[in-house]
Amino acid sequence: MNQHTLKSACVFKGKGLHGGLPVTMTVEPAGPGEGIVFYRTDLGGAPVRLAPSSVASTDRSTAIAEGETKVVTVEHLLSAFSGLGIDNAAVRLDAPELPILDGSAAMYVKAFQQAGIAEQDAQRRYAVLPGPFEYRDEATGSLIRMTPCDRFEAEVTVHYEHPALLRDMKAGYVCSDDYAGEIAPCRTFCLLSEVEFLMQRGLIRGGDIRGALVVVDCELDAQRLARLQEFFGIPTLKASQNGYLDNVELHFTNECARHKILDLMGDLLLLSRPLKARVEAFKPGHRVNAAAVRALVRQYPQML
Ligand SMILES: [Zn+2]
Predict the structure, then answer these.
(1) pTM for the model
(2) CB-based burial of residue 34 (10 Å sphere; 0-12 exposed, 13-18 middle, 19+ buried)?
(3) For the chain, first and last CA: distance in Å?
(4) Could you say which DSSP state residue 191 is in?
(5) Is residue 189 within a helix (H) or strand (E), and if so which, with residue range?
(6) CATH of residue 12
(7) Structure-derived torsion over alpha carbons of residues 182, 188, 193, 196, reported in degrees to the nearest 10
(8) In terms of C-beta density within 10 A (0-12 exposed, 13-18 middle, 19 or more buried), how is residue 196 classed?
(9) What is the DSSP code string of 220-279?
(10) Number of folded domains in the chain?
(11) What is the bridge-based pairing of β-strands 89-93 and 22-29?
(12) Domain for residue 25, yes or no?
């Protein structure tokens, strides 16, 4: 398989989820072998490249840095590159954080498909897993297990002790599946108790999570509902029959687990090239994913 890039540039405007800053981001074609490189135009175009060691933080999203230059919430864009097989692109943004858009990778996929994806005159280089690998996080019980495979396959299990609908919710993906239709539209999710916690500390604004799935994991009394209605700016908000707030409609019954596959694919691209392995992830998250990638190249440095 040869390398691929975009046929023309795509522009995205929006706000960062965590910092709330407006951002304009341009994703442009790049030459074979150049890889995915971010450039902070507000900092004189300083580059940030993908590498297992470039992870700067994994607090609710994945941030990468090179020297003093940092780029925050890269995972959904990286997932779109991974899912569509885009090897080379120059990503220019004028703020620290990528736009959250609708909380999924759907808008990236749609724009890239419209721009077109061009084959380049160079062989794609894969990160091929040579033997078994396991990363376990004792604190959270998370587990990332990989076995050699001649393509990319993933199976994710989401597990929370409390909310019944997130107990062992599963999703699977193999690289021949329809990423654009099955994974890219799946939005981020959070627990209602987390939303309240973040609201009380002024860490999120209602508009920022208007598109997120919210799992009702605590009692939803009239007072709490009134607070949430005001916060979201949705006067008719209620808990739906299936255990989510009805601010959005589900695309799939296991949309939360599919979003974890979306995130995992983005985080695995920190390897800087597409992975060939079968990946089983139990309770994955950005911190665990990034730590697993670092442990993977420590164990198998020949992969890169
Ligand atoms: Zn995500």
Answers:
(1) 0.95
(2) middle
(3) 18
(4) E
(5) strand 189-191
(6) 3.30.230.20
(7) -150
(8) middle
(9) --HHHHHHHHHHHT-TT--B-TTSBBTTS--SSTTHHHHHHHHHHHHHHGGGSS-EEEEE
(10) 1
(11) antiparallel
(12) yes
The answer to whether residue 295 sits within a structural domain is no
pLDDT of residue 208: 64
**pLDDT, block means (10 residues), the chain with 304 residues:** 98 86 96 98 95 92 95 97 98 95 95 98 98 96 98 97 91 94 95 87 70 89 88 85 88 96 98 98 97 98 96
Note if 286 is an active site residue: yes
**Distance from residue 104's CA to the centre of ligand 1 (Å):** 7
Domain-embedded: residue 288: no
Distance 256 CA to ligand 1 centre (A): 10
The answer to whether position 68 is within a domain reads: yes
CA of 75 from ligand 1 middle (Å) equals: 7
Containing structural domain, residue 12: 2-125
Angle between helices 75-84 and 106-115 (to 10 degrees): 50
Q: How far apart are CA 147 and CA 32, in angstroms?
A: 29
Distance from the alpha carbon of residue 188 to the mean position of ligand 1, in angstroms: 5
Q: How many residues does the chain have?
A: 304
- Tokens (6 digits) for 63: 């941030």
Give backbone dihedrals phi and psi of 167, rounded to 5 degrees, phi first: -95, 110
